[in-house]
Amino acid sequence: MDEDGAAADIVGTKTLTATTLLRPGQWVAGARAVSRGNIQHNTGRRPTQLGATLVIGPGDELLYADFEDYAGDHSDLDEVIAVLLG
């Protein structure tokens, strides 16, 4: 967890905004999560922080980066695995 936001500041992740909440993808992702029984109970100290998936290789080489545009906008795992397999 990045409770103080240090990593988010370094990486440059986005934050949730009112505009983001109106995106159809946000509502679809939320409905999908609730239908699967995933209900967020504790938002932590940074509830508007969006996530990112990074794959960093030897020598600090950035091999893959994907930044969430809204909550639930996750990276394609097939892409991440393909990068990891090289």
Provide tags for this entry:
single chain; 86 residues; alpha+beta; two-stranded antiparallel ribbon
Fraction of residues in helix = 25-40%
* Strands side by side in the biggest sheet: 1-2
* Succession of helices and strands: HHHEEH
Q: DSSP helix count?
A: 4
Give the domain tally.
1
Q: Which word captures the global form? A: globular
Amino-to-carboxy terminus distance: 27 Å
How would you classify the helix and strand content by structural class? alpha+beta
Largest pleated sheet: 2 strands, antiparallel
Oligomer: single chain
Radius of gyration over all CA atoms, rounded:
14 Å
Average pLDDT over all residues = 87
Account of the 3D structure:
The protein is globular. It has a two-stranded antiparallel ribbon. The chain is α+β, with helices and mostly antiparallel strands and 86 residues long. The protein contains four helices and two strands, in the order αααββα. The model has no long low-confidence stretch (mean pLDDT 87). It has one domain. 36% of the residues lie in helices and 15% in strands.
Short description:
The chain is 36% helix and 15% strand.
Provide the fold topology.
Blueprint: H1 6-11, H2 18-21, H3 24-35, E1 52-57, E2 61-67, H4 77-85
